[in-house]
Amino acid sequence: MPAADASPVALRSEKAMAFFHVAFGRTFAGSMRALRIPHWGLPDYAPGRPLVIYAPHPSWWDAILFMLLLRRYFISRPAFLPMDAEAIRKYPFMTKLGVFGVEQGSPRGAVRFLHTAGQVLAAPQHMLWMNAPGRFVDVRERPVPITPGLVRLAEIAPEALIAPLAFEYAFWTEKQAEAFAAFGPAMQASTLAAMDRQARAECMRDALTAVMDRLAQDVISRDPARFTAAIDGSKGMGGLYGAWQYLRAMIRGERYAAEHSPGQKAD
Fold first, then answer.
1. For the chain (length 267 residues), average pLDDT per consecutive 10?
2. Could you list the residue range(s) of the whole structural domain that residue 215 is in?
3. Rounded to whole angstroms, how far apart are CA atoms 65 and 80?
């Protein structure tokens, strides 16, 4: 068990990150159809500055999407993620993935979070991923909850960039669900820090809500041409029905297509 005051920067292991990226990728591929990102929502952030990504928290899958996205688009950036301290005690291996514990609902926990976040964001190549609400929240809930700790980050790391990230999960035409993500434009932490905290929270909330609403419209369209498939997952029905489809295609001399709707093949 790591010491309570151990720095997440010191505990993080690149070997563990690489191993669990493979493990999480297999978990995702075995259960989900694809991870899709709209063309407008691909990340494009200036290097050489610390980066904070904040997102809603609609699902258990969010943490795995964090991992897959950071290894897909931010491989050169060491990443860190706060999590409830009780969960870290149950799964101490997660400290090797840059995860650090936060004591929920106490002033001491809030102070400790800001201190640790400050350590993380002191390095220009580092990034911090956060669930904005601090709890599970449906993507349709409005106003979108924003935790006070997230709002304070601009004060302790004014040189950072802070950017919203939207998540959605939906069923299209396959048995497996589709996962969706979209990054929004980065905001200057120094600009946010110049605002009072209430105005800053509203600004950050509005930025996240705008990305969530735009992503929702693309998901509703069910048009795969609007997206790029960052990760491809499982296809088709599987099981006996999938085997029968394959056998029938072989007998007829046809190419077997696992997708229920060929127009929704991943890129």
1. 70 92 91 96 96 97 94 94 88 91 86 94 96 94 95 97 98 94 98 98 98 98 96 57 52 55 49
2. 8-31+45-168+176-219
3. 14
